[in-house]
Amino acid sequence: MTAPRDELADELLVDVEDVPVAVPPALPAWPRWVLAVAMLVVACNLRPPLTSVGPVLNEIRAALPEWNTWVGFLTMVPVLCMGLAGPSAPGLARRWGAERVVLAGMAVLVAGLAVRGMATPWPLFLGTAVIGAAIGVVGVLLPGLVKRDFRDHGTVMTGLFTMCLCWGAAFAAGVMVPLTEMLGDHWAWSLAAWSVPALCATLIWAPMVPRRGSVPLVPPAPVRGLWRNPLAWQVTLFMGLQSSLAYAVFGWLAPILRDRGLDAAAAGWMVSFSVVLQLPAALVAPVLAGRARDQRGAVVVALACTLTGLLGCLYLPVDGLQLWAAAAVLGIGQGAAFSVALALIVLRSSDGHVAAQLSSMAQSVGYTVAAFCPMALGLLRDAAGSWDPAGPLFAAVAVAALVAGLGAGRKLTLCGDDHR
Fold first, then answer.
1. Is 316 left (phi over 0), alpha (psi -120 to 50) or beta?
2. Calpha distance 253→400 (Å, rounded)
3. If you average pLDDT over residues 331-358, what whole number do you get?
4. CB atoms within 10 A of CB 54
5. CA 272 to CA 269: how far, in whole Å?
6. pLDDT tens-digit profile of 288-341?
7. Most buried residue, 42, 89, 228, 297, by most Cβ within 10 Å?
8. Does this model's pTM top 0.70?
């Protein structure tokens, strides 16, 4: 055992070998595979509301010319609301049960998607904010459920969970333009159409809510010293900074490619192609990272691929296979980076209680940080009249993510034995 430390912020740090392994609680009502399927269906619906905007952003600008500058903030609003709503998730789970809060969050998501389809500015922004808040709460609780109910298969479930997030994002980005054309070029109708699969996911999750309470996901009080712990902040900043690059891609890569000369459908399919390639990376990366002595190597490889792909999409010629290769490298890098970020929440936590609160911290603060890059990219584009500032911005964010990730990837664990 390492020598005791004087600082409260360091009390939670222990070597991995010193963490006692708790016996995972039995699931309350359903076989484990049924809960896994329901959880993955929910995950499939947490990214289409975000990636469906970028492919039709130019059409939204054209339809709302007096709101032209503000429309660019549609890429930032949901991410910011995800960060602002995330801290409420553990308290809601303590009061109502995590499964019930996930159900309520999915119902709110359906309502927000429906409101966003009204095609007028205020419902569009209000619905987008509600969508972000709902995704923030649900997204915070799911990693804690993974740690609680799938402790012996945590990295595998993390990979599957991330793969479903990526699949949903890719599917929405790819079909958004054809869907809009099929609905008579009504972009608002195509945005609202994503409420249908979200409603189906809500109905599938509903039976997972136990009738008489649930196995606790979070303790009655916060984990002591978590918000003053350097390791917790490193996990949080890595989550936020790599997500900042991801949401810049979700919101702006299609407009960037369109401004570089691709038509709307081709730009949407290229974004979809990139996100599709996140699937195998998202499935494999956390498993390999979990088997390694630590996760620093995975962080370096994931961020190197991400930055290489981003710069390729910005600067390579648009009329050859090089741009598709850059999109492929980008997808592999971002799938690996996001899945490793989620895996770090699980791997750095000693139990489901710590995982739930570290997830809340990492995703609430992290997604608030993540809103920076899409917002800055839009403002820089309007100020410069081109995408030239995008490259330096992406490089700066990637370097900052690398610094945080190298700290978060160390072989240390946050111990949840000490609560207050």
1. beta
2. 21
3. 85
4. 29
5. 5
6. 888 888 899 999 999 999 999 999 999 998 887 899 999 999 999 998 998 899
7. 89
8. yes
| Percentage of the chain lying above the pLDDT 90 cut | 33
How many whole angstroms from its chain centre is CA 113?
18
Classify residue 255 as exposed, middle or buried by CB count within 10 Å of its CB (0-12, 13-18, 19+): buried
Bridge partner residues of 412 (DSSP) = 15
Q: What is the DSSP letter of 419?
A: B
C-alpha 352/C-alpha 25 separation (Å) is: 10
Give, rounded to a whole angstrom, the gap between the first and last alpha carbons of the chain: 23
Q: What is the pLDDT of residues 201-229, one digit of tens each?
A: 999 999 988 765 555 555 555 667 788 89
List the domains of the chain with CATH numbers.
10-19+30-414 (1.20.1250.20)
Q: Using a CB cutoff of 8 Å and minimum separation of 24, what contacts does 264-269 make?
A: 264/55, 264/56, 264/58, 264/177, 265/177, 265/178, 267/55, 268/55, 268/173, 268/174, 268/176, 268/177, 269/174
Cα distance between residue 151 and residue 214, in whole Å: 17
Output the furthest CA–CA distance in the chain (Å, rounded).
68
Q: And the tokens for 345?
A: 């929440």
CA distance 331 to 246: 10
Check: CB of residue 252 under 8 Å from CB of residue 53. Answer: no
CA-wise closest residue to 302 among 157, 406, 186, 185: 406
**Residue showing tokens 């946050």:** 414
Q: What residues contact 406, with CB distance under 8 A and at least 6 apart?
A: 296, 299, 300
Angle formed at CA 131 by CA 378 and CA 187, multiple of 5 degrees: 65
| DSSP code for 417 | S
Residue 124: enclosing H or E segment and its boundaries?
helix 121-149
